[in-house]
Amino acid sequence: MSEPAQAPLLSVCIPAYNRGKWLADRIREWLAAAPEDVEVVVSDNASSDDTADAVADIGDPRLVLVRNGANVGAFENQLRAFEAAHGRYVMQLMDKDELVPGGIAAALAALARTDAVCGEFVINNSGASAKPVRVRRGFDAFRRHGLAFTHPSGHFFSAAMLRDSGLLARLRALDPVIRPYSTDYLVSLSLGHGGYAAIDLPFVRMNLPPYEGVAASVSYRDPEQYYFTPSFLVREFVAYAKFLERETRLTALVRLRLVARLAGGPLFNQMTVWYRWRLESDAMCAWYGMRPEFRESELRRDLVKDGADALRGIAGVGRLTRLAVRLGVARRLRRKDAYEIPENIKGGAR
Question: What global pTM score does this model have?
C-alpha cells in the first residue's frame, strides 16, 4: 500500500500468525473507532491459515499489510512491522491482545502531549495514579524499566529515534538469547535518547489464556526453550549485564545498582513466584505445551532456594557484578514475601 500523505501519530504494529478472521474482525472494530491519525500495520508471518487474506479484505487506507514469504520468527516479524510503519510513534500489539475502542481518542491525545522517546500504554488500565501520564528520565527510568520482563503489547517508541539511531539494527546484532525479552532491551537502548512515559488510560487490553489458535501459533516443546525457566533467565540476566556495559552509557556504579535491583526484584520474581504461578496454571501450561513430567518435577523444587543458589553462582560476569547480584538476592531473601504469589496474578492459577 502507498505511504499516507501525512504521517499518522501512531502506528499499531501487530506481528501476526494464524489469527485469521478473529484478528480481522478486531481490526475492523478498532479502525471504525479510531481517528485518522492512527495506522494499523500487520506483518503476517507466513500463516498457514487465511490471516493475510482476511486482513487484506478490510480495505482501509489506514491499514498496512506485510506478507512474509517464509516464517521469520516472532522477533524478526515484530521488527518488520516497525519498519513498515509510517507513524510518528510505533506501538507493539501481540496478535492475541486488543485495543479498547472507547479509549483510543484519549490515549492518542495523551501521547501527542508527551516528549518521551519510548513508553507504554499501561495494560488493562491499572488506574493506580491520579496522573494518567507519568514521564521518567535518567536512572529512575532504567531502574523501573530495565529488564522488567515487560509484556510487549502497549509499548511504543519514537519512529524517528529508532530510524536515526539505528537501534533496530543494534537489536538484531545482539545475542539471540535476548529475543524473548527484546522489548526490554529496546527500552534500555531507547533510554539513552530521552524519557519513558507511562500512559495509564484504557487503551490496551491483554487477553488471558487459553487463547484461540495456540497450537499453531507458538510451541515450547523443548524444556531448554521455555524462556521463563530459571536456567534460561540466568542466561538472560548474564546477557543483560553484559549488554548494559557494552551498549549503554551508564557508569559502573549505576550499572551495579541496577544489577542488584534486578537480582533482588524482577529477576528473582520471574525465577520463583511468577515461575510457580505458571507451573500451577493449567491454562498457561497448555499454552506453552509444557510436558507433564517437566511440570511435575519443577513443582517439587524449592524454587526460592534454588533460584537464590543459581543467582549466587552466576558466572560469565565480573567480580563486582557478582557481588552486586549477591547483595540484591540477600536483600530480597530478608523480605517475608519471598514465597508469595501476588494477589493480582493468583486468578490465573488452576
Answer: 0.89
